[in-house]
Amino acid sequence: MIFRIYWMFFQTGTHILSPDWAEGNLYAFLTFESVFVIVAIYQLTSRNVVRKVEKAIGVLKTMRIKENHNRVDSYAFVHIRLLIVLTFIGVSILGSAIYLVANKLVILGTTRHSSWYPYYDVIISFFCFYVHFLYIPIHVLIHSAIQKEIYIFNIELKESITSSSDSQNFTQKFEEIIEKFKNRQLFLQNFANSTMSRFSILLNFGGFLIYLAVLNASYNATVSNPNRPTLYMICNYFLWISTIIITIILLYPQTIIIESVQKTAKLLLSSRIIQENPNVYENSQIMIQRSEQNCHYNNVAHAFRITQKNIKRTFMLIALTVIVMKVTHKFVELGDDIGLLLEKVHNKMNIKSM
To answer: What are the record keywords, sorted (predicted)?
Structure first.
């Protein structure tokens, strides 16, 4: 995999800001991100994270007021989405590699040729897909399990507040609810924070690399190139979409968990019944402060927190960067055309002078 990264960066013979240059960068960054996916798989398996998550989820289910939430506990829809996404990613990653090896090309349009590299490249492409095929279900299911438990916690808390408000002895009743839920909240948030911290290396470095892959894929897909066959263009468009999907899968689940945790504070603060009882409000402060302040945030490239706003800002920045790259590429092409024109004029003047 490291050799493929080296080859795509230094051995393709492409010109900077050309579509072929962006395509080589895309393959390199996607492969580099796959290296950190392998590291994440090793960390999850060596530390037995999946088994610990299953055990913690089992404990949290015993803390529920209602043991079964059939609609929320069902993972059928998650499994269907995973099947569709993994199939699409597999077709996207392998499609371009198979096309190149079938035509014995390193990258379409490059001046470099190799009799053996396309076969090596398709093997590495399959391996990149395989590590994502192993990792993505684990990543999605772990985060889904945490998010479901927080969602159920918020539902049961809201129902308990509503039901206790009908009681004549509301203050005492609510203190019992707070006592019951604050211990459950502490266990739930500590479990969520410790689990999310396991993904810090992948999201820190892999998140940055997959953003760079999206940038190059976006540029490669949007720059016009009449010499590309239609089938190969379709493969490139699919790969562009796949990089965006991988980015969303890696980053968005943690933002959903954080928002669900913070929703507990909003739920308590928006309760009219709590606001009208000062003693009850004071007792609920520990849960409010915990949900607002006790959240684990992972970062991308040690630069910014993974939040929904920051993810949207980054995609906007990528779009603006692609526009700048396209404009720069047009100026470079225009400069080359002017240079050729001046050279032709100069040659004609020399011929006439002779």
So the answer is: Membrane, Transmembrane, Transmembrane helix
Residue 115, number of CB atoms within 10 A of its CB: 7
Q: Quick check: is 88 in a domain?
A: yes
- The residue type of 240 is W
- DSSP tally for the chain: helices H, then strands E: 13, 2
The Cα 9–Cα 6 span in angstroms is 5
Judging by DSSP bridges, how do beta strands 299-300 and 304-305 pair with one another? antiparallel
Max Cα distance, the chain (Å)? 111
Per the domain annotation, does 242 fall within a domain? yes
Domain that holds residue 301: 2-312
Which H helix or E strand runs over 302?
A: none
Q: Based on the structure, what is the number of domains in the chain?
A: 1
In tens, the pLDDT along 212-239 reads: 999 999 999 888 777 788 888 898 899 9
- What CA–CA distance (Å, rounded) separates 31 from 45? 21
Give the separation between CA 191 and CA 53, rounded to whole angstroms. Answer: 8
Cα–Cα distance measured from residue 168 to residue 149, given in angstroms and rounded to the nearest whole number:
31
